[in-house]
Protein backbone atom coordinates (compact mmCIF):
# COMPACT_ATOMS: atom_id res chain seq x y z
CA UNK A 1 0.00 0.00 0.00
CA UNK A 2 2.38 2.69 -1.28
CA UNK A 3 4.43 4.49 1.38
CA UNK A 4 2.34 2.83 4.10
CA UNK A 5 2.98 -0.73 2.85
CA UNK A 6 4.10 -1.76 6.36
CA UNK A 7 0.55 -1.07 7.59
CA UNK A 8 -1.04 -2.92 4.69
CA UNK A 9 1.17 -5.92 5.43
CA UNK A 10 0.01 -5.89 9.06
CA UNK A 11 -3.63 -5.96 7.94
CA UNK A 12 -2.88 -8.82 5.55
CA UNK A 13 -0.99 -10.77 8.23
CA UNK A 14 -3.89 -10.48 10.68
CA UNK A 15 -6.26 -11.93 8.08
CA UNK A 16 -3.76 -14.68 7.12
CA UNK A 17 -3.50 -15.75 10.76
CA UNK A 18 -7.28 -16.02 11.14
CA UNK A 19 -7.72 -17.94 7.86
CA UNK A 20 -4.96 -20.40 8.80
CA UNK A 21 -6.48 -20.97 12.25
CA UNK A 22 -10.00 -21.49 10.90
CA UNK A 23 -8.83 -23.90 8.18
CA UNK A 24 -6.73 -25.85 10.69
CA UNK A 25 -9.67 -26.17 13.11
CA UNK A 26 -11.96 -27.19 10.23
CA UNK A 27 -15.04 -25.28 9.08
CA UNK A 28 -18.36 -26.88 8.18
CA UNK A 29 -21.16 -24.83 6.63
CA UNK A 30 -24.48 -26.45 5.75
CA UNK A 31 -23.00 -29.93 6.23
CA UNK A 32 -20.10 -29.29 3.85
CA UNK A 33 -16.43 -28.81 4.69
CA UNK A 34 -15.36 -25.31 3.70
CA UNK A 35 -11.76 -24.21 3.13
CA UNK A 36 -11.15 -20.46 3.23
CA UNK A 37 -8.88 -18.94 0.61
CA UNK A 38 -7.46 -15.47 1.13
CA UNK A 39 -7.05 -13.38 -2.03
CA UNK A 40 -4.66 -10.53 -1.19
CA UNK A 41 -4.71 -7.41 -3.37
CA UNK A 42 -2.74 -4.16 -3.09
CA UNK A 43 -4.51 -0.85 -3.73
CA UNK A 44 -1.22 1.11 -3.36
CA UNK A 45 -3.12 3.58 -1.10
CA UNK A 46 -4.46 5.07 -4.33
CA UNK A 47 -8.22 5.71 -4.78
CA UNK A 48 -8.22 4.85 -8.52
CA UNK A 49 -6.26 1.61 -7.99
CA UNK A 50 -8.64 0.75 -5.14
CA UNK A 51 -11.66 0.73 -7.44
CA UNK A 52 -9.81 -1.46 -9.96
CA UNK A 53 -8.80 -3.88 -7.20
CA UNK A 54 -12.38 -3.95 -5.89
CA UNK A 55 -13.72 -4.82 -9.34
CA UNK A 56 -11.06 -7.53 -9.69
CA UNK A 57 -12.17 -9.08 -6.37
CA UNK A 58 -15.83 -8.93 -7.38
CA UNK A 59 -14.95 -10.61 -10.71
CA UNK A 60 -12.97 -13.26 -8.79
CA UNK A 61 -16.25 -14.08 -6.97
CA UNK A 62 -14.99 -13.42 -3.43
CA UNK A 63 -17.73 -13.95 -0.83
CA UNK A 64 -16.66 -11.04 1.42
CA UNK A 65 -13.89 -8.45 1.73
CA UNK A 66 -11.60 -7.43 4.60
CA UNK A 67 -10.44 -3.92 3.72
CA UNK A 68 -9.38 -1.51 2.63
CA UNK A 69 -6.63 -0.07 4.79
CA UNK A 70 -7.19 3.69 4.60
CA UNK A 71 -10.30 5.82 4.11
CA UNK A 72 -9.20 7.28 0.77
CA UNK A 73 -9.32 3.79 -0.78
CA UNK A 74 -12.04 2.19 1.37
CA UNK A 75 -14.65 4.79 0.41
CA UNK A 76 -14.36 4.62 -3.41
CA UNK A 77 -14.08 0.80 -3.31
CA UNK A 78 -17.19 0.54 -1.11
CA UNK A 79 -19.46 1.59 -4.00
CA UNK A 80 -18.27 -1.39 -6.07
CA UNK A 81 -18.83 -3.91 -3.24
CA UNK A 82 -22.23 -2.34 -2.58
CA UNK A 83 -23.29 -2.68 -6.23
CA UNK A 84 -22.15 -6.33 -6.16
CA UNK A 85 -23.87 -7.05 -2.81
CA UNK A 86 -20.63 -8.14 -1.13
CA UNK A 87 -19.95 -7.57 2.59
CA UNK A 88 -17.00 -5.24 3.23
CA UNK A 89 -15.44 -5.09 6.70
CA UNK A 90 -12.73 -2.44 7.06
CA UNK A 91 -10.34 -3.10 9.94
CA UNK A 92 -8.87 0.39 9.85
CA UNK A 93 -10.75 3.06 7.83
CA UNK A 94 -11.82 5.80 10.25
CA UNK A 95 -13.39 8.53 8.06
CA UNK A 96 -17.09 8.80 9.07
CA UNK A 97 -18.15 9.12 5.39
CA UNK A 98 -17.46 5.41 4.80
CA UNK A 99 -20.57 4.34 6.73
CA UNK A 100 -22.57 7.52 6.08
CA UNK A 101 -23.16 6.63 2.42
CA UNK A 102 -26.03 4.34 3.35
CA UNK A 103 -24.40 1.21 1.90
CA UNK A 104 -25.74 -1.86 3.72
CA UNK A 105 -22.55 -3.70 2.71
CA UNK A 106 -20.18 -1.43 4.70
CA UNK A 107 -18.96 -2.30 8.21
CA UNK A 108 -15.94 -1.27 10.26
CA UNK A 109 -14.17 -2.53 13.39
CA UNK A 110 -12.70 0.76 14.63
CA UNK A 111 -14.00 4.06 15.97
CA UNK A 112 -14.39 6.98 13.55
CA UNK A 113 -12.58 10.29 13.17
CA UNK A 114 -15.73 12.03 14.43
CA UNK A 115 -14.72 10.40 17.75
CA UNK A 116 -10.95 10.38 17.32
CA UNK A 117 -10.57 14.06 16.32
CA UNK A 118 -12.49 15.40 19.34
CA UNK A 119 -10.66 13.00 21.73
CA UNK A 120 -7.31 14.40 20.54
CA UNK A 121 -8.64 17.96 20.72
CA UNK A 122 -9.90 17.48 24.29
CA UNK A 123 -6.47 16.21 25.33
CA UNK A 124 -4.83 19.24 23.71
CA UNK A 125 -7.22 21.62 25.51
CA UNK A 126 -7.36 19.98 28.95
CA UNK A 127 -4.04 18.19 29.39
CA UNK A 128 -1.68 20.24 27.22
CA UNK A 129 -3.59 23.46 27.99
CA UNK A 130 -2.76 24.77 24.50
CA UNK A 131 -3.65 28.36 23.63
CA UNK A 132 -2.48 28.34 19.99
CA UNK A 133 -2.68 25.37 17.61
CA UNK A 134 -1.37 24.81 14.08
CA UNK A 135 -3.01 22.20 11.83
CA UNK A 136 -1.34 20.52 8.85
CA UNK A 137 -3.00 17.77 6.80
CA UNK A 138 -1.83 15.54 3.94
CA UNK A 139 -4.80 16.35 1.61
CA UNK A 140 -6.10 12.75 1.72
CA UNK A 141 -9.65 11.84 2.68
CA UNK A 142 -8.33 10.45 5.99
CA UNK A 143 -5.87 13.21 6.90
CA UNK A 144 -8.10 16.11 5.95
CA UNK A 145 -11.16 14.51 7.57
CA UNK A 146 -9.40 13.89 10.88
CA UNK A 147 -7.93 17.41 10.89
CA UNK A 148 -11.41 18.89 10.20
CA UNK A 149 -12.91 17.07 13.20
CA UNK A 150 -9.99 18.14 15.41
CA UNK A 151 -10.27 21.77 14.24
CA UNK A 152 -14.01 21.97 15.03
CA UNK A 153 -13.43 20.80 18.60
CA UNK A 154 -10.38 22.97 19.40
CA UNK A 155 -12.17 26.05 18.04
CA UNK A 156 -15.20 25.25 20.20
CA UNK A 157 -12.83 25.08 23.20
CA UNK A 158 -11.75 28.66 22.45
CA UNK A 159 -8.25 27.78 21.25
CA UNK A 160 -6.70 29.99 18.57
CA UNK A 161 -6.11 28.07 15.32
CA UNK A 162 -3.44 29.36 12.92
CA UNK A 163 -4.22 29.42 9.15
CA UNK A 164 -4.50 25.80 8.01
CA UNK A 165 -1.61 24.26 6.06
CA UNK A 166 -1.72 21.32 3.63
CA UNK A 167 0.93 19.02 2.18
CA UNK A 168 0.50 15.70 0.35
CA UNK A 169 0.98 12.04 1.26
CA UNK A 170 4.15 11.72 -0.87
CA UNK A 171 5.98 14.75 0.61
CA UNK A 172 9.38 14.44 2.31
CA UNK A 173 10.37 18.06 2.92
CA UNK A 174 8.20 20.04 5.33
CA UNK A 175 10.64 22.85 6.14
CA UNK A 176 8.76 25.58 4.21
CA UNK A 177 5.42 24.77 5.89
CA UNK A 178 7.06 24.37 9.31
CA UNK A 179 8.93 27.69 9.01
CA UNK A 180 5.59 29.38 8.30
CA UNK A 181 3.96 27.57 11.24
CA UNK A 182 6.85 28.42 13.60
CA UNK A 183 6.20 32.14 13.09
CA UNK A 184 2.73 31.69 14.64
CA UNK A 185 4.29 30.29 17.86
CA UNK A 186 1.89 27.34 18.30
CA UNK A 187 1.84 25.27 21.50
CA UNK A 188 0.70 22.25 19.48
CA UNK A 189 0.98 21.14 15.85
CA UNK A 190 -1.74 18.69 14.81
CA UNK A 191 -0.85 16.55 11.79
CA UNK A 192 -3.58 14.74 9.85
CA UNK A 193 -1.72 12.07 7.89
CA UNK A 194 0.27 8.85 8.04
CA UNK A 195 3.53 7.83 9.73
CA UNK A 196 5.51 7.88 6.44
CA UNK A 197 5.09 11.68 6.35
CA UNK A 198 4.43 12.32 10.05
CA UNK A 199 7.84 10.97 11.10
CA UNK A 200 9.89 13.27 8.87
CA UNK A 201 7.58 16.19 9.77
CA UNK A 202 8.22 15.70 13.52
CA UNK A 203 11.95 15.30 12.92
CA UNK A 204 12.20 18.46 10.78
CA UNK A 205 10.14 20.43 13.34
CA UNK A 206 12.72 19.55 15.99
CA UNK A 207 15.60 20.48 13.66
CA UNK A 208 13.96 23.90 13.17
CA UNK A 209 13.85 24.40 16.94
CA UNK A 210 10.05 24.13 17.16
CA UNK A 211 9.08 23.26 20.73
CA UNK A 212 5.38 22.63 20.01
CA UNK A 213 3.95 19.21 20.86
CA UNK A 214 3.13 17.18 17.74
CA UNK A 215 -0.23 15.38 17.88
CA UNK A 216 -1.90 13.09 15.35
CA UNK A 217 -4.28 10.20 14.83
CA UNK A 218 -3.96 6.48 14.21
CA UNK A 219 -2.24 7.09 10.86
CA UNK A 220 0.91 8.17 12.69
CA UNK A 221 0.41 6.10 15.84
CA UNK A 222 2.83 3.29 14.98
CA UNK A 223 6.21 1.86 15.93
CA UNK A 224 7.42 2.92 12.48
CA UNK A 225 6.87 6.56 13.50
CA UNK A 226 9.56 6.19 16.19
CA UNK A 227 11.96 4.93 13.54
CA UNK A 228 11.22 7.86 11.20
CA UNK A 229 11.03 10.68 13.76
CA UNK A 230 14.26 9.91 15.62
CA UNK A 231 14.60 11.85 18.91
CA UNK A 232 11.58 13.99 18.02
CA UNK A 233 9.38 11.00 18.91
CA UNK A 234 9.45 11.99 22.59
CA UNK A 235 7.44 15.06 21.64
CA UNK A 236 4.56 13.15 20.00
CA UNK A 237 1.07 12.33 21.32
CA UNK A 238 -1.15 10.19 19.08
CA UNK A 239 -4.45 8.36 19.14
CA UNK A 240 -5.63 4.96 17.99
CA UNK A 241 -9.28 4.48 17.06
CA UNK A 242 -9.33 1.32 19.14
CA UNK A 243 -8.21 -0.51 22.26
CA UNK A 244 -4.49 -0.98 22.72
CA UNK A 245 -3.32 -4.58 22.12
CA UNK A 246 -1.80 -4.71 25.61
CA UNK A 247 -5.24 -3.99 27.12
CA UNK A 248 -7.08 -6.64 25.08
CA UNK A 249 -7.89 -9.75 27.12
CA UNK A 250 -6.13 -12.10 24.68
CA UNK A 251 -3.71 -9.40 23.47
CA UNK A 252 -0.46 -10.90 24.83
CA UNK A 253 -1.41 -14.32 23.44
CA UNK A 254 -2.13 -12.79 20.01
CA UNK A 255 1.17 -10.88 20.09
CA UNK A 256 3.02 -14.19 20.67
CA UNK A 257 1.09 -16.04 17.92
CA UNK A 258 1.71 -13.20 15.50
CA UNK A 259 5.42 -12.94 16.28
CA UNK A 260 5.87 -16.72 15.99
CA UNK A 261 4.18 -16.73 12.59
CA UNK A 262 5.55 -13.54 10.97
CA UNK A 263 8.68 -12.78 12.99
CA UNK A 264 7.60 -9.16 13.60
CA UNK A 265 5.61 -7.43 16.34
CA UNK A 266 1.99 -6.38 15.97
CA UNK A 267 1.82 -2.73 14.95
CA UNK A 268 -1.69 -1.26 15.20
CA UNK A 269 -4.44 -2.89 13.08
CA UNK A 270 -3.53 -6.61 12.63
CA UNK A 271 -5.92 -7.64 15.47
CA UNK A 272 -8.76 -5.92 13.61
CA UNK A 273 -8.21 -7.67 10.27
CA UNK A 274 -7.91 -10.93 12.26
CA UNK A 275 -11.30 -10.28 13.87
CA UNK A 276 -12.78 -9.14 10.53
CA UNK A 277 -12.23 -12.66 9.15
CA UNK A 278 -13.86 -14.17 12.26
CA UNK A 279 -16.83 -11.77 11.91
CA UNK A 280 -17.37 -12.90 8.30
CA UNK A 281 -17.08 -16.59 9.26
CA UNK A 282 -19.50 -16.03 12.16
CA UNK A 283 -21.99 -14.64 9.60
CA UNK A 284 -21.41 -17.66 7.32
CA UNK A 285 -22.22 -19.99 10.22
CA UNK A 286 -25.37 -18.09 11.19
CA UNK A 287 -26.49 -17.89 7.55
CA UNK A 288 -25.54 -21.56 7.08
CA UNK A 289 -24.26 -20.45 3.68
CA UNK A 290 -21.24 -19.08 1.84
CA UNK A 291 -23.39 -17.10 -0.60
CA UNK A 292 -22.60 -13.35 -0.46
CA UNK A 293 -26.28 -12.32 -0.25
CA UNK A 294 -26.96 -14.68 2.66
CA UNK A 295 -23.79 -13.63 4.52
CA UNK A 296 -24.77 -9.97 4.07
CA UNK A 297 -28.34 -10.57 5.28
CA UNK A 298 -27.16 -11.70 8.75
CA UNK A 299 -24.25 -9.26 9.19
CA UNK A 300 -26.36 -6.61 11.02
CA UNK A 301 -27.22 -9.17 13.74
CA UNK A 302 -23.53 -9.82 14.53
CA UNK A 303 -23.04 -10.24 18.27
CA UNK A 304 -19.70 -11.79 19.15
CA UNK A 305 -16.72 -11.47 21.43
CA UNK A 306 -13.61 -10.98 19.37
CA UNK A 307 -9.98 -10.37 20.21
CA UNK A 308 -10.73 -6.61 20.11
CA UNK A 309 -13.73 -6.93 22.50
CA UNK A 310 -17.49 -7.06 21.94
CA UNK A 311 -18.46 -6.73 18.30
CA UNK A 312 -21.97 -5.53 17.38
CA UNK A 313 -22.92 -3.02 14.68
CA UNK A 314 -25.31 -0.09 14.68
CA UNK A 315 -27.64 0.68 11.75
CA UNK A 316 -24.81 2.33 9.77
CA UNK A 317 -22.28 -0.49 10.16
CA UNK A 318 -20.23 1.23 12.88
CA UNK A 319 -19.40 -0.47 16.17
CA UNK A 320 -21.98 0.04 18.93
CA UNK A 321 -19.15 0.24 21.48
CA UNK A 322 -15.74 1.60 20.55
CA UNK A 323 -12.63 2.97 22.20
CA UNK A 324 -10.06 5.70 21.54
CA UNK A 325 -6.61 5.17 23.08
CA UNK A 326 -4.17 8.06 23.50
CA UNK A 327 -0.42 7.41 23.60
CA UNK A 328 2.91 9.12 23.97
CA UNK A 329 6.32 7.53 23.38
CA UNK A 330 8.83 6.49 26.02
CA UNK A 331 12.20 5.21 24.74
CA UNK A 332 10.73 4.95 21.23
CA UNK A 333 7.92 2.70 22.46
CA UNK A 334 4.23 3.61 22.61
CA UNK A 335 2.90 4.11 26.11
CA UNK A 336 -0.82 4.40 26.96
CA UNK A 337 -1.85 7.83 28.29
CA UNK A 338 -5.62 7.48 28.37
CA UNK A 339 -8.43 5.16 27.26
CA UNK A 340 -11.74 6.76 26.25
CA UNK A 341 -14.80 4.50 25.91
CA UNK A 342 -17.42 5.54 23.37
CA UNK A 343 -20.96 4.17 23.34
Assign the CATH architecture of the largest domain. Answer: 3-Layer(aba) Sandwich
Mean pLDDT: 96
pLDDT < 50 runs, ≥5 residues:
none
Structural class: alpha/beta
Portion of residues within helices: 40-55%
Straight-line distance between termini: 32 Å
CATH topology of the largest domain: Rossmann fold
Q: Determine the number of helices (DSSP H or I, runs of at least 4 residues).
A: 12
**Relevant CATH superfamily of the largest domain:** Response regulator
Shape estimate: elongated
Characterize the biggest β-sheet: 8 strands, mixed
How many strands appear in the DSSP assignment?
15
- Provide the number of structural domains: 2
The CATH class of the largest domain turns out to be Alpha Beta
Q: Nearest-angstrom radius of gyration?
A: 20 Å
Taken as a percent bin, the fraction of beta residues is 15-25%
Topology order in helix (H) and strand (E) letters: HEEHEHEHEHEHEEHEHEHEHHHEEEE
Amino acid sequence: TGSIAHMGKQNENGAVLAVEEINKAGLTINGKKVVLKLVPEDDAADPKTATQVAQKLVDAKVVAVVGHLNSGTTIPASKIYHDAGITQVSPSATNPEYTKQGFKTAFRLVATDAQQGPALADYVAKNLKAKVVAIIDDSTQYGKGLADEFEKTVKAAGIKVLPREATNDKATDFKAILTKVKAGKPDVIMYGGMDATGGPLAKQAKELGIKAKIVGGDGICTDKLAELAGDAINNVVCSEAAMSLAKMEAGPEFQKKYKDRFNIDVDIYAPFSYDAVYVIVDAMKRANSVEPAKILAVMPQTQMKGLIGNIAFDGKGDLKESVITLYDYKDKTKSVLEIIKIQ
